[in-house]
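Appendix B. Chain record.
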Amino acid sequence: GKLKALPGSKPQWVLADSGHNQIVVLDDSGADVKRFGSGAQGFKDGDAKDATFDHPQGLIASDDAIFVADTGNHAIRRIDLASGAVTTLAGNGKRGAILADAAPVKTTSLASPWDLEKKGDKVYFANAGTHQIGVLDLGKQTVARLAGSGAENLVAGSSSKAAFAQPSGLVLSKDGKTLYVADAESSAIRAID
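Structure tokens predicted for this chain:
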């Protein structure tokens, strides 16, 4: 899956180990520091050893948590770095429809979230299954479309008219003003202001 830096005083990395249905913290030489998830394919919250994932593809880390794009479960999960507890933030294990206006996280299904970025209380996600970029607002507990009509295409334009094709990677600019998207099936790098 993806490999991203873990904030902190010593250089560490977080890895979406899709083939083993786990999230791994690595030191700077690549050695395992900690694994989250039992390794069994499933959709279960719990402690670091008992929780299960289904082919997680993307992630992003903050000072206190790792946020996971749990692709096979159509969910966004959170790993608390202090306790190791895994919880579900959005998604219910069922593939969702096209994202639109803000809707409650408890009743909104996602569609193959593939990667994540975070700025403040907002977690941006590549909702690859509907060819959109979504935003999870942790404060308001809502999920909404950030960009993408849901059509599979390479079309620039306003957030509701733009089209993507299997967006699979995200990175936020250092100033936090631009979200870059690896739009896999259109073989393009896109930018969202």
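Further analysis of this model is presented in Appendix C.
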